[in-house]
Structure formats: structure tokens, C-alpha cells
Recover the amino acids of this structure.
């Protein structure tokens, strides 16, 4: 290589400290380069050295300068990323408190309680000739009512949100009423106790239970047929059926309050008179409507209902 100094040159075989492959680059030339008289050859490539004199012309930046800038920039970015990561790792992490979920209320278990309410009977007296069973044509309707109250007990079993149970109750009642015709004849009705054994089925919404109920109903039926001069009484315990619905709410883990409506039908009752109206039989079909409120104590306070797995 002769003439003016060059900025790119072939280094010694094997490359030098700044060699990239077989080619090497050096910083922009700011010193005048002269060919030394006693040039040292590395193979066929002449060696140049600085004579110490400044050149009157600055050379342009070379690829080596760009490469250095890229290396410096990459090193800076890597250092910044490492510092940010170290800062993240060093930041304290606050513990997150686990959410505490209260167990769902369970309706399963035995219970006992008391109730009070009102009961209203719809009835009718129909007259028949005892010997033939033919209706005489006389029919008179009447309504009676009174207060009723007593005890109830039962057991529930809950699966998911469904509650099945069996309940029985016994009550004293003060139902009393009847009718009197213009001639002084009439019928009197009284009921001093009633009870039932029923199934219950409902849907629980946590502490609220919405249910339907139905089963066997029994009640005392006391009929009196009278004239201005005499009265004749008949008493029996009559069985029938009852259906109803209600809502119950647990205001503590063991205590609940309920509101319930029931309809009861006691079938047909027949009484053959031998004193007040001899030769005549009187038939009735007593039906009742009742509304009750009650308070119940649950013996079981299990944490949750049985969850069915399918």
C-alpha cells in the first residue's frame, strides 16, 4: 500500500487486539502517517507508524467508531435493565390476608318449638231422612273460629339447598260457633284440640327456608243439635288431610321464627239424631283455614349442609 495513509488495514496474521475477523479497524486518523523507510512487513502487509506530526485534515468517522458507540449503548441498556430488576427484587412484598368465608347455615337436625294462631272453619248442616237416606231439603251453612296453639317437633335433612323433613304438632283450640234459626232450632260446633303429622319440603336460602307441607290432620268435632227444649251432643275425633306453606328464618344459630298457613279438610261427618230430631241424620263437611306464627329451637347447629356429588 502506497501513497496517502489509509484508515483500514490488514492486521498481522491471526488478528490483533482490535481485530474483527481478518480485518481490523482503528480510530479516525488525526496524525499524518508516513511510510517508514525501514518498513516492517507482516507477511506482505506494510506497517505504518505515527511520526508525531499533525495532519492538516481530519478524517471522517469510520466503522470502528460506530461499532464502539453501539457497544457502549448496549452496555448501558443492559446495566439499566439489571438495576431495574434488582430494584424489583428488593421491593418488600406485603402478605395478602386470606378471605374468611362463613359457612352456610344448616337446617339439618332435630327441633322443637311452639306456635299460636287463629283457625276458621267453614261447615254446613245437611238434613237426611235416616230410614231412607233421602235429603229432606234442609241445608244451613255456618262459620266458626277461634284461637289455637300448641307444640311442634320434627327433623330436617338438608342436601345442597333442598330441605326435607317430618313434623308433628298438637294444639289446643277454642273454636266455638254455630247458628240458630228463627224457630229456636239450631246447630252448635266446638273443637277443643287438633293435630297433624306432615312432610315438609323446602328451599333454603342461607338462613331463610321457604317450604310446603302436607299430611294427616286430626281434630275433635263436637256437634250439638238443639231445640228450645232439648240439646243433643255428638263428639268424635275426625281424621282428614292438610296442606300448607310457610317461611322460616333463623335469627340465631339455634332459634328460628316461622309464619305458616294451612288448609285442612276433615271429610264427611254424619250424626243420626235420636233425641232432638228423631228420624233425621245430619251430615257435615268441616274444613278449616289456619294461620300460625311460631318459634323453634334447633338442636343441630352443623356448619353447613350436605353437598351432593354427582
Amino acid at each position: 500500500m502506497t501513497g496517502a495513509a489509509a484508515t483500514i488495514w490488514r492486521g498481522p496474521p491471526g488478528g490483533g487486539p482490535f481485530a474483527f475477523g481478518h480485518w481490523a479497524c482503528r480510530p479516525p486518523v488525526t496524525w499524518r502517517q508516513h511510510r517508514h523507510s525501514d518498513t516492517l512487513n507482516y507477511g506482505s502487509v506494510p506497517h505504518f507508524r505515527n511520526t508525531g506530526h499533525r495532519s492538516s485534515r481530519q478524517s471522517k468517522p469510520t466503522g470502528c467508531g460506530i461499532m464502539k458507540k453501539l457497544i457502549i449503548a448496549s452496555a448501558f441498556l443492559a446495566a439499566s435493565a439489571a438495576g431495574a430488576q434488582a430494584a424489583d427484587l428488593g421491593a418488600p412484598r406485603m402478605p395478602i390476608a386470606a378471605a374468611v368465608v362463613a359457612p352456610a347455615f344448616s337446617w339439618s337436625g332435630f327441633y322443637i318449638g311452639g306456635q299460636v294462631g287463629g283457625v276458621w272453619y267453614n261447615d254446613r248442616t245437611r238434613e237426611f231422612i235416616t230410614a231412607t237416606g233421602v235429603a229432606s231439603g234442609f241445608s244451613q251453612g255456618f262459620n266458626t273460629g277461634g284461637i289455637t296453639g300448641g307444640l311442634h317437633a320434627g327433623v330436617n335433612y338438608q342436601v345442597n339447598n333442598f330441605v326435607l323433613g317430618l313434623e308433628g304438632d298438637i294444639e289446643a283450640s277454642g273454636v266455638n260457633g254455630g247458628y240458630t234459626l228463627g224457630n229456636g232450632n239450631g246447630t252448635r260446633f266446638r273443637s277443643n284440640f287438633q293435630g297433624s303429622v306432615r312432610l315438609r319440603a323446602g328451599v333454603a336460602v342461607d338462613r331463610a327456608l321457604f317450604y310446603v307441607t302436607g299430611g294427616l290432620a286430626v281434630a275433635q268435632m263436637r256437634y250439638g243439635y238443639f231445640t228450645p227444649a232439648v240439646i243433643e251432643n255428638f263428639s268424635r275425633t275426625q281424621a282428614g288431610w292438610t296442606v300448607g306453606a310457610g317461611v322460616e328464618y333463623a335469627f340465631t344459630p339455634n332459634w328460628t321464627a316461622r309464619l305458616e298457613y294451612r288448609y285442612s279438610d276433615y271429610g264427611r261427618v254424619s250424626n243420626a239424631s235420636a233425641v232432638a230430631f228423631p228420624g233425621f241424620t245430619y251430615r257435615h263437611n268441616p274444613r278449616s283455614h289456619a294461620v300460625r306464627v311460631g318459634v323453634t329451637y334447633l338442636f343441630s347447629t352443623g356448619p353447613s349442609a350436605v353437598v351432593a356429588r354427582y
